[in-house]
Design goal:
With about 350 residues, this protein is an all-beta fold. It is built from one helix and 17 strands. The chain has a single domain, classed as Outer membrane protein transport protein (OMPP1/FadL/TodX) (Porin), CATH 2.40.160.60. Strand 7 (about 155-175) and strand 8 form a beta hairpin. The model has no long low-confidence stretch (mean pLDDT about 90).
Length: about 350
């Protein structure tokens, strides 16, 4: 996160590329949290928002009897925490009455991944993973009236999701200064139930990713990655459910990591990066959101390198049509090696 995702294809504590598990040499557990502070502007007005997420929890370790690394992780796939308020005027019994509507959602979709990586030699690592996609949304719709002769109303529903997917990846190291990584993933379709009744299916995307890592100087690592997702496959399903649709996305990231002391390479490193991405879900038909982000970060290991902490700060700018948003995201990651 401190390098804007530039090393995501090589990061064994990420769920992006299962082949990255090949970098793990001892049992390792990781927990991450993100706090974001957002300011949004649109034709209806402005708002300042805050949100707390825990995007990644994982544990992985090598198998002593074979050149294998096994990993189990739990991460965010999509977040659906939001509240929308609207004001309208209704004709009730021949009178115009102001109505205030609020729709709130809490929940999202999570990705449970079981992965294994095989190191065939000092150069190549191959891996595969099985994904279970699951989650719930608690929806609540409320309507109140400016005229107190009309009683307020409320409606609640629970939306649940279920799906499975699979991913494969590889990672190659060509000497100490250059490496590449590739991955492909298919998530099939997602079953959507409302209050235990099947209401729809949504096609989920294919994902393709490629990353490179270069060490031009002993103290400096540079990385870059490109990730493409076919979210347009969900477009017709979302339109049928009354949404505004989805489009294909791509993400490009570039960043670096500077190590001040080569004798202690995990002690107070400096990370930096930039990222540009197209976002999948449309606010208005034909207008695809995009975002640009700059990141910095650092990290250190202690307790004989059995524990570590990583910190990151990202400043993000998003826009879609007349909507603008800027956000600061503060990330913290804690890792342990028993």
């Amino acid at each position: 996160m401190g390098s804007a995702g530039a090393f995501g294809m090589f990061d064994p504590e990420s769920s992006l590329n299962p082949a990255a598990l090949g970098n793990i040499t001892a049992l390792n557990a990781v927990f991450t949290g993100v706090q974001d502070y957002r300011h949004t502007e649109n034709p209806a007005g402005t708002a300042s928002l805050r949100d707390t997420r825990f995007p990644q929890v994982g544990v992985a370790g090598p198998i002593k009897a074979a050149p294998l690394v096994l990993g189990l992780s739990f991460s965010n796939y999509t977040s659906r925490d939001f509240t929308i308020a609207a004001v309208d005027t209704l004709n009730l019994r021949g009178e115009l009455v102001q109505a205030n509507d609020t729709l709130s959602s809490r929940g999202g979709l999570s990705d449970l991944r079981i992965a294994a990586a095989y190191r065939s030699n000092d150069r190549w690592t191959f891996a595969g993973a099985f994904h279970v996609l699951t989650g719930t949304n608690r929806l609540e719709s409320q309507r109140s009236f400016a005229d107190t002769r009309y009683l307020p109303t409320a409606q609640k529903a629970e939306i649940s999701y279920a799906g499975i997917g699979a991913s494969v990846g590889t990672m190659g190291q060509f000497g100490p200064k250059f490496g590449i990584a590739m991955m492909a993933r298919s998530d099939g379709h997602l079953n959507v139930d409302r209050d235990s009744t099947r209401v729809s299916q949504v096609d989920l995307p294919y994902t393709l990713g490629f990353g490179v890592r270069l060490r031009p100087l002993p103290k400096l690592d540079l990385g870059s990655q490109v990730v493409f997702r076919t979210w347009s496959g969900a477009n017709s399903d979302l339109l049928e459910q009354g949404g505004t649709g989805a489009d294909n996305t791509f993400e490009v990231a570039f960043g670096g990591e500077f190590t001040g002391d080569l004798k202690r390479p995990y002690h107070r490193v400096l990370r930096f990066g930039a990222r540009y991405a197209k976002l999948p879900f449309l606010l208005d038909p034909g207008g695809q959101p995009s975002e640009f982000a700059l990141s910095i970060g650092t990290g250190t290991r202690f307790a004989q390198q059995r524990a570590g902490i990583d910190l990151s700060l990202e400043h993000t700018w998003r826009h879609a049509g007349d909507t603008r948003e800027r956000a600061f995201l503060v990330g913290i990651g804690v890792s342990l090696r028993p």
